[in-house]
Specification:
This protein is mainly alpha-helical. It has 15 helices and 2 strands. It has a two-stranded antiparallel sheet. It is found in: Cell membrane.
């Protein structure tokens, strides 16, 4: 396994090189005047200057390989250009929003994965019983429900009617505390930083703003994980080694928990990888519905305002996450099932 991980890390630069070529090809599909927006951070720069002069100044009429060399040099230094939609460099826009997306992803993954696996196993164990039928109906409805519709319903009921879970990331009072000089932002995660600063009002307020997006994400992905776990578990329970274990008199809880469930998790890990990727990449619809200032909301704003630098910066960020999470998923196969060898 160690050799496999080393080989994957050695291949990583070549994969990233391919991604940069693809992303740069997308840039080159734009005209030089459109690409000027990635360099101009103040509209006043356009006053009194000829557009052709600016194109020549930034080398946008040079051969593509020279432009690629300059662009990749900037990327290696963390320079993705200026984001018009955020009003700041793309790198700063992504890094300033990453803690919010990470916090939402961390709190959403736990109920989705753990709850989905637990209920999926129970549903398979009680196959064709009343509990199984109820779970199947609920999961089918949950997976079929459009995310934005469910998010709006959660926002309308729990905030519009009950006033419990407001949109955004922090209320006015908690935000004032976080921005104060006395509050130290160790991680950018409001819940954790609130605990470390002993500001439990910030912790409570952060949770109030997180519950709406978490519930919306959980009901969709929870249904998907549950259905995958149930199907995989039903197939595993029909295997010969499960029948043998039961014939030997092994207790049913050991048959389910030790033999069947672990082997049934391989398909779950396969689908959990893209789910985590989607969460860390920014959940565009959920973050937009709840006004949650994360990477997903930034990607939506960049697309709406034709912010080419922002769109391409998010694409590079998402590509890196995809490569990293695929590596973690592959290694997880061997951890869950020792019979799988990655050498």
């Amino acid at each position: 396994m160690v050799n496999y991980i080393i080989r994957r890390f050695l291949i990583l630069p070549f994969i990233l090189f391919g991604v940069t070529v693809l992303v740069f090809s997308m840039i080159m599909m734009l005209g030089p005047y459109q690409r000027l927006s990635t360099y101009i951070n103040d509209p006043a720069q356009l006053k009194g200057q000829d557009m052709d002069e600016l194109v020549s100044k930034y080398g946008l009429d040079d051969p593509w390989y020279e432009q690629y060399g300059r662009w990749i040099g900037g990327v290696l230094q963390g320079d993705f250009g200026w984001s018009e939609s955020a009003g700041q460099p793309v790198t700063e826009a992504i890094f300033s929003r990453f803690p919010a997306t990470l916090e939402l992803a961390l709190f959403a993954v736990i109920p989705v994965v753990m709850g989905g696996i637990w209920l999926g196993v129970l549903s398979a164990v009680h196959h064709n019983q009343k509990f199984d039928h109820i779970i199947r109906i609920v999961s089918t409805v949950g997976w079929s429900f459009p995310t934005f519709v469910f998010g709006l319903m959660v926002l309308m009921v729990f905030y519009g009617v009950l006033g419990w879970f407001p949109p955004g990331r922090l209320g006015a009072d908690a935000a004032a505390i976080v921005r104060s000089a006395e509050f130290i932002q160790y991680t950018g995660l409001n819940v954790l930083d609130g605990i470390l600063n002993l500001e439990f009002g910030v912790v409570v307020d952060s949770f109030r703003h997180l519950i709406g997006p978490i519930v919306t994400l959980a009901i969709v992905w929870w249904s998907y994980i549950l259905r995958i776990t149930r199907s995989s578990m039903l197939e595993t329970l029909r295997k010969d080694y499960i029948r043998t274990a039961r014939a030997k008199g092994v207790a049913e809880k050991f048959v389910i928990n030790k033999h069947a469930r672990r082997n049934a998790l391989i398909p779950v890990v396969t689908v959990a990888g893209p789910m985590v990727l989607g969460l860390l990449g920014g959940v565009v619809i959920v973050e937009s519905v709840f006004g949650y200032r994360g990477i997903g909301q930034y990607a939506a704003q960049a697309a709406q305002q034709l912010d080419y630098s922002g769109i391409l910066g998010v694409a590079m960020y998402f590509s890196f996450l995809l490569i990293l999470i695929n590596l973690i998923v592959d290694v997880s196969y061997a951890v869950i099932d020792p019979r799988i060898r990655l050498e």
